[in-house]
Amino acid sequence: MHKFISLLFVSLLFCSATVLAEDVKKSELHKQAESIDVKENIAKARSTYIHAFNDYANRGEIKLATECATKATALYYRENFWQEAFDLLRRADQVISSSSLSTPERAGNHYWVTKERFQMYMKMHRAESAKEHLNAMDNQANLSGDEALKNDLLYSKTIYHYTFGQTSQGNAVFKEMVGKLTASKEYDKVDEVYQTLIANGRKSNNASLVAQSYSNYLAWKDSTNAMKHADEIKALKDQIAANEAEIADKDSSLTARWVFIVGLLVLAGALAAALVLGAVVLMRYILQTKKQKKVIELANDSNALKAKFISNMSAQLEPTLKKLDSSQPEVQALLDFSKHVQTLSELENTNDELEMEEVQVQQYCEELMNQIRGTEKEEVQLVINAPKMSALIYRPYVSHILTHLLKNAAEYTPAEGKITIEFKKRGQHKIEFHVSDTGSGIPEEKREDVFKPFLEIHDLTKGDGLGLPTCKQMALKMGGDLTIDADYIRGTRFVLELKA
Fold first, then answer.
1. Beta-sheet pairing, 418-425 with 390-393
2. What's the distance, CA 380 to chain centroid?
3. Residue 190 near residue 209 (C-beta atoms within 8 A)
4. Within 13 Å and on the Cβ side, how many CA atoms surround 74?
5. Is the pLDDT of residue 103 over 80?
6. Residue among 318, 321, 339 nearest 330 (CA)
7. Angle in degrees, CA 168, 173, 176, rounded to 5
8. Are 392 and 500 in contact (CB under 8 A)?
């Protein structure tokens, strides 16, 4: 009987350690305490567990703190240091009570502290004190709602009843414990407990205990065998059903694979036909592309020759035109037209690298605005909106464009209107110049055409229509663009975009 009780006691301690250590990560101090051989240095092991308890308590890890406190307590009363053991458990209870754990969690940790006191009273053979703590453990296990604690409580009750000669009560609790193990199908564990109980009954010459235990064991064995057979039959039926389902699934899968293979063959045939057709189309496309490339090359060559011809023609006309009376508006208009044609032709056929120049933006805009001062109508405001900063530009082209835009603005802005030149930095690699006026504006349908040369027949004395196309070409040569702001409705705003 004493050996059986010892077995239950060891099992109880193992369960305690398992439940307490579940799902937690132990500290290095805790691991160090566990590595110490208690038989060789019990004082060091106990001291290390106490240090681990204090460390866990300071960090608010109550579950691990409780485990270390109970282990250190067991090492205290192992050497009959009862007062020290009780003091340590009292500190553990205080730590648990002052923690931020929920009520069920606190009850679960108090259970292990109370159980350690229970085991101390069991060792001292103080039945009443042990019974009192066993009742407290019962309340704490129920309050925690933890099924593992309730199972552990059965072991403690069994030990208590057998230790103090309450065999029938011990048998009742033992039967409840066996019932739980059987329900969870832990048959081998129950069989081991019965065998141990019978063996210890024989060693203690307790014939009635042996007889009763053996009778109970046989009855349990019969019922267990029936349950095992039922489980085996059920498992076999489940396996058969699973095999049948797997066969049906494989049969269905095989059919699906055949369908898939046939589909792949059809798709392969269709792809082969598509490849042949695609090859034919590709060959035709390559031939057409070669023809188109040749046509484009011819067109480019033709445009270059045409531009060169126009430029040469303009250059040849100029000496003759200069012999005429330039005071005549028509003659001056022809001279200007010839010059503008030559400039536009040169822009279209040159790829010279542009040498950038750094300018102070505000001062530069003031210089440009000064070129039209006195040409504007009465009470027209000339506004400069430019920051004090520098910018890199190709000055000849930018000055030509902005001067032309400002002159146009001065011509078309009515009295009491406003002409504005602005500078905007649009990120690290882009700048803009804006020239705005409050004139009548350019109709939407003509905004694209104003940048195209030779689109209309002009009275050259009133302008040849090459100013804005030339400005546009200059902007493109600089890697930028010249556009009309479609959102500006109070007149006309030209936007010169340039690379910074």
1. unpaired
2. 59
3. no
4. 19
5. yes
6. 321
7. 130
8. yes
> Which tokens belong to 467?
């100013």
Q: Give which of 496, 478, 453 is closest to 352, Cα–Cα.
A: 478
C-alpha to C-alpha distance for 483 and 451, rounded to whole angstroms: 9
**In the numeric block, which tokens belong to residue 22?**
């579940």
pLDDT digits (tens, 9 = 90+) for 322-377: 656 566 666 665 666 667 677 676 776 667 788 899 999 999 999 999 999 999 99
Q: Classify the phi-psi angles of 441: left when phi > 0, otherwise alpha if psi is within -120 to 50, otherwise beta.
A: left
350: which DSSP letter?
Answer: -
- d(CA 188, CA 182) in angstroms, rounded, equals 9
Angle in degrees, CA 97, 98, 100, rounded to 5: 100
Give the side-chain half-sphere CA count within 13 A for 460: 15
Specify the DSSP element, H or E, that contains 482.
strand 481-484
Would you say residue 12 has pLDDT above 50? no
Helix (H, G, I), strand (E, B) or coil at 414: coil
How many Å apart are CA 107 and CA 146, to the nearest integer?
Answer: 10
C-alpha R_g of the chain: 52
Compute, in degrees rounded to 10, the torsion defined by CA atoms 242, 246, 247, 250. 180
**What are the backbone angles phi and psi of residue 331, rounded to the nearest 5°?**
-65, -45
Q: pLDDT by residue (tens digit) across 38-96?
A: 889 999 999 999 999 999 999 999 999 999 999 999 999 999 999 999 999 999 999 99
Distance CA 139, CA 111 (A): 9
Is the distance from CB of 170 to CB of 200 less than 8 angstroms?
no
| Contact in structure between 335 and 328 (CB atoms under 8 Å) | no
pLDDT for residue 13 is more than 50: no
The DSSP bridge pattern shows strands 381-385 and 418-425 to be parallel
- Angle at the Cα of 300 from the Cα atoms of 294 and 306, rounded to 5 degrees: 135
Q: How many angstroms from the chain centroid is the CA of residue 405?
A: 52
Token reading at 399: 């000055």
Contacts 24+ apart (CB under 8 A), 74-82: 74/116, 74/119, 75/38, 75/42, 75/45, 75/46, 75/49, 76/46, 77/120, 77/123, 78/42, 79/42, 82/120, 82/124
